[in-house]
Write a structure and sequence with these properties.
- The chain is built from 10 helices and 11 strands.
- The protein has 287 residues and is an alpha/beta fold.
- It has a domain of 123 residues: Rossmann fold, CATH 3.40.50.
- The longest helix has 24 residues.
- The mean pLDDT is 96.
- Bound molecules: nicotinamide-adenine-dinucleotide (NAD).
- The site of nicotinamide-adenine-dinucleotide has 25 residues, from helix 10.
Length: 287
Amino acid sequence: MTARILTGKEPAAVQRAEVAGRVGGLAADGIGVGLATLLIGDDEPSAVYVGMKHKAAVKAGIKSIDRRLNSDVSQSDVDAAIDELNADPAVNGYIVQLPIPAHLDTDRTILRIDPNKDADGLHPVNLGRMLLGLPAPRPATPSGILRLLDHYQITAAGKHVVIIGRSGLVGRPLSVMLSQRPHNATVTVTHSATKDLTELARSADILVVAAGSPGLVGADHVAPGAVVIDVGTTKIGAGLVGDVRFDEIVEIASAITPVPGGIGPMTIAGLLANTVILAERTQEDKT
Ligand code: NAD
């Protein structure tokens, strides 16, 4: 069997076009949509991701605002930058590009974001709303994964999904979203302390790998006909590599996402979708 390659290019383009249409609708009412990013430090991959987010925003008609702080910045300077973004009427949504330098407090930083401007859907208010199944911006990467599956008509309902990685950014929110209606999957979350990872992974109908460990998953981890979603992106040399040994698995799985060009574009499209939702909500609050 040679797996179907699930690229993010097409579904992301469809979602970006939807976003552009809604941005156009708001513009017709005289309302602009603004997305800001706060990049702290000089991590090269982070700077590349931020650049891609800005490019996609501008293409969708969203005003793109690029805020940067030096790597040796104090937490109180970060707090002040966040307060400015919270107060800026031109900013409907913004993200703090993660990871931030180790001397800073990620939780404190996320908690300071106005939940009504939380374009990444990572503020506890929005995560809590997600847990209850209420409307809120959803974390962009998990929503991108769900949208990609939907685009390729791969249903998770009744299936066993194994997720490798339990971060607050990917694995944990994805596990909640997949287990909720309408996705209705049965989910196992695994992590670095999991025993028998290979065996568990082999029991998956859909295997999602978000560990940040290049080449972690090989032929032994994948049952014939499984769907494999590789979220991992690690910069090695000039390129990006995933967590999955693609060449081994492409002959076993029924479908697989590539790296780059799989979940990455879906994450960016999900971020733009969250921004327009936040802008529409601001507009509804005013009317
Ligand atoms: P993280 O470091 O916060 O979490 C990694 C998780 O993987 C942890 O829960 C850890 O327990 C688990 N893990 C690590 N090694 C393991 C192993 N050998 N066996 C089992 N579990 C293991 O990382 P993150 O922020 O969730 O990101 C994960 C990867 O996804 C990274 O490569 C990141 O760059 C990538 N990512 C990509 C996108 C995208 O848009 N494509 C978005 C977010 C993250």
